[in-house]
């Protein structure tokens, strides 16, 4: 016996969550050719089909682009600190792609490893993730090459499977998921399943073996020739998590702010002395692949990539993890 919900009931439920004070985020069409995860104003804004995946990722709602850590005021020799301990409103992320949700355990490791990041963890505790299993993939998807699949419930509190005719099977994976859907579904004999594929595109172990043994190699120069260092790959990646901490405001004070950063920027490793250990784009591209396939796995036992394909889809010059990994494997 399965639990099912109709598309209209799902939209009504999203509207109920919004009316109840929850922040609800999900895919929405913001321009004719652009779908983004964004905070929904109504259940009708929720886009459930007709696109591959949003151009951003759900990390925006747990690790925002810019976040105030604390405020401060400077008067003469005295500094007043103003804590930012406002409670996080409950939020639901609905119709996340499995490759987005699977990045959350990756971020959990990072923000709880040598330092427990209160801001991330507060938001994580207040968030319930409802995933929609994929019913299509495009040429940039490669979840199966990094150990996932289009129906993976990793990082999800509940997962929806399209049954056709506007119906979804609901499988709850955690207490949070049950709390959202209890009493909201109907019993059915029907069960859903995700698509199979995408076909495995490369061998992640072979990529790891290459990057750990080819630090100085012409491959990086050849590969990075077209990269313009824009950072779009990192910013649209559900798993990339580098940040900077900056002071915003005047000398009299204002706020200390955590902002997204990227290893693809020339200033990322620039020292105050003027020395830069990664002086050009090939070293930065190498770092991105090395971190994803060797450094992070060595520390946390998994690849720092869920195969969502966003870095390739959004790159203005057509690079991305998929092209590098396949070149390494088949080059
Ligand atoms: S790989 Fe592409 S998206 Fe990433 S920094 Fe280079 S040009 Fe930008
Ligand atoms: S590295 Fe690229 S394919 Fe992998 S999770 Fe990040 S954006 Fe997606």
Question: Explain this structure to me?
Answer:
Helix content is 28%, strand content 24%. Strands 3-2-6-7-8-9-1-10 form an eight-stranded mixed sheet. The protein has a four-stranded antiparallel sheet with strand order 5-4-12-11, with no helix packed on it. The model has no long low-confidence stretch (mean pLDDT 95). The protein has one domain. It is an alpha+beta fold and 331 residues long. It has helices at 7-19, 98-101, 104-110, 118-125, 175-181, 204-213, 218-224, 232-235, 281-300, 310-313, 321-330, and strands spanning 2-6, 23-31, 34-39, 66-75, 78-83, 91-96, 127-132, 158-164, 167-172, 186-188, 243-250, 253-260. The protein has eleven helices and twelve strands. A hairpin with a 2-residue loop joins strand 2 and strand 3. It binds iron/sulfur cluster (2 copies). One iron/sulfur cluster binds at residues 227-233, 264, 315-317, 319. One iron/sulfur cluster is lined by residues 236-240, 292, 305-311, 320-321.
What would the average pLDDT be, to the nearest integer? 95
How many strand units? Answer: 12
Largest sheet: 8 strands, mixed
Share in β-strands: 15-25%
List the helices and strands and how they pair.
Blueprint: E1 2-6, H1 7-19, E2 23-31, E3 34-39, E4 66-75, E5 78-83, E6 91-96, H2 98-101, H3 104-110, H4 118-125, E7 127-132, E8 158-164, E9 167-172, H5 175-181, E10 186-188, H6 204-213, H7 218-224, H8 232-235, E11 243-250, E12 253-260, H9 281-300, H10 310-313, H11 321-330
Parallel strand pairs: 2-6, 6-7, 7-8
Antiparallel strand pairs: 1-9, 1-10, 2-3, 4-5, 4-12, 8-9, 11-12
Helix pairs in contact: 6-9, 7-9
Bound molecules: iron/sulfur cluster (SF4) (2 copies).
